[in-house]
Structures are given as structure tokens and as C-alpha cells.
């Protein structure tokens, strides 16, 4: 082959190779379709997990936000005997800490144990609100891989069924459909489960930080009520 012929043929071969490579690249939409009907519940679970994570992330972040001067103002009002002003301030602020302190202020004059119990009850309700949806997210993290494994079993049964019906005319392409379904569902289930698992633990850690803050503010308020009157 002459040098000129080689130079002329190289671009053509490169284009052909690129076209062949493009044809062999994996189409993820086609892959999902070939996964069979088992992909429908897994895609639904992925959207559920995504919605819960985004919604809870912003809800927990809002609950964690706190005005550093809030407790100082509450302390000043209570020391000055301005209980109504302290109560009004709590109603103006929209976060779990203000709602707990508001309940405690409304119980001032009763035994401290009753005040503390009332605050704890409100705190438990606030924590329950923050944890809304987290059990579902945990279920997705465990359920998605199991559904994926179910798809794996279905795909392998399909492959062996095709093999049994083929008799002596067994072809690799005959088995590829069932095996393809098995692998796609397994990968999809594991991917959704892993992402939901990390999302769940991330949100749980954020909730725990809010819980520690609520406990600290409760102790601060109770110490304020326990201070001797000058």
C-alpha cells in the first residue's frame, strides 16, 4: 500500500470505527426498557426517594436555623417580668425552639416538673415532624435492591426457559435477553438502594443535630426558671 493510499483510507476507517463505536454505546433509556416491567416500580421508588430527600432536607434546614439573640431576649423578658412580651416573641418566630419555649412560658407558675414535661411533649412532636418520611426512605433503601434481585431471578428463569425450548439450537443471542434483564434490574436496584441509604443516614444525622439543639435550649430555659430571684 502506498503512502497516499494509506492517508486516503485512514479518515474513512476512522469514520467507520467512530460509527461502529457509537452504535455499540449503551443507550440507558433502551437499557431501562429492556429491563422489563420490574423497572416500573424501581423508577417509582427512585422518584419517591428523591422527593423525600429534597423535601426533608429543606424542612430540616429550616428547623435548624436559629436566631442567636432569641434566647437572650427571652431571658431579658422573663427576668424583667415581661412574660407576655416573651410569649409574643415566641409566636413571632417559626421554629421548633420557639414553639417549645412558648409552651414552657405558658406553664410558668406551675411546678417546674410540669413545665419540663410540657416542653418535652412539644419537643417530641417537633422531632416526629422532622422524621416524617424517613421510614419510607429507609424502606426504599432496603426494598429497591430486593426488587432488583427479583428481576434478576425473573431474567434468569427466562434465560433458562429459552434454553430449554431451544433444544440443541442454543444460541448466545437467545439467552442474552433474559440475562440482560437480570443484570439491568440488579444494577438499577442496587443504585437506587445505595443512594437512598446514604440519603437516609444524611438526614438522620441532620435531625440528630436539631435534637441536640432542642435539648440544649430546653436546659437553658429550665435553668432560667431555676435561677433565684434577686
TrEMBL record:
The keyword Protein transport applies. GO terms for cellular component: plasma membrane. Signal peptide: none annotated. Keywords: Cell membrane, Membrane, Protein transport, Transmembrane, Transmembrane helix, Transport. It is a multi-pass membrane protein. InterPro entries: ExbB/TolQ_transport, MotA_ExbB_proton_chnl. Belongs to the exbB/tolQ family. This is MotA/TolQ/ExbB proton channel family protein. It comes from Plebeiibacterium marinum.
Amino acid at each position: 500500500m502506498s503512502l497516499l493510499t494509506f492517508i486516503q483510507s485512514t479518515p474513512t476507517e476512522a469514520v467507520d470505527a467512530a460509527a461502529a463505536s457509537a452504535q455499540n454505546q449503551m443507550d440507558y433509556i433502551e437499557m431501562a426498557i429492556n429491563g422489563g416491567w420490574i423497572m416500573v416500580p424501581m423508577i417509582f421508588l427512585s422518584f419517591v426517594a428523591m422527593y423525600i430527600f429534597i423535601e426533608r432536607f429543606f424542612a430540616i434546614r429550616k428547623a435548624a436555623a436559629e436566631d442567636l439573640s432569641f434566647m437572650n431576649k427571652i431571658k431579658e423578658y422573663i427576668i424583667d417580668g415581661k412574660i407576655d412580651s416573651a410569649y409574643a416573641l415566641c409566636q413571632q418566630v417559626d421554629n421548633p425552639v420557639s414553639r417549645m419555649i412558648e409552651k414552657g412560658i405558658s406553664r410558668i407558675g406551675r411546678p417546674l416538673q410540669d413545665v419540663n414535661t410540657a416542653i418535652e411533649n412539644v419537643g417530641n412532636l417537633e422531632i416526629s415532624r422532622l422524621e416524617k418520611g424517613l421510614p419510607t426512605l429507609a424502606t426504599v433503601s432496603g426494598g429497591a435492591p430486593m426488587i432488583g434481585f427479583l428481576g434478576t431471578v425473573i431474567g434468569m428463569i427466562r434465560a433458562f426457559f429459552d434454553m430449554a425450548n431451544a433444544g440443541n439450537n442454543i444460541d448466545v443471542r437467545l439467552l442474552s435477553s433474559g440475562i440482560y434483564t437480570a443484570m439491568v434490574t440488579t444494577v438499577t436496584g442496587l443504585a437506587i438502594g445505595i443512594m437512598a441509604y446514604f440519603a437516609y443516614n444524611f438526614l438522620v444525622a441532620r435531625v440528630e443535630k436539631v435534637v441536640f439543639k432542642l435539648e440544649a435550649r430546653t436546659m437553658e430555659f429550665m435553668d432560667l426558671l431555676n435561677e433565684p430571684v434577686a
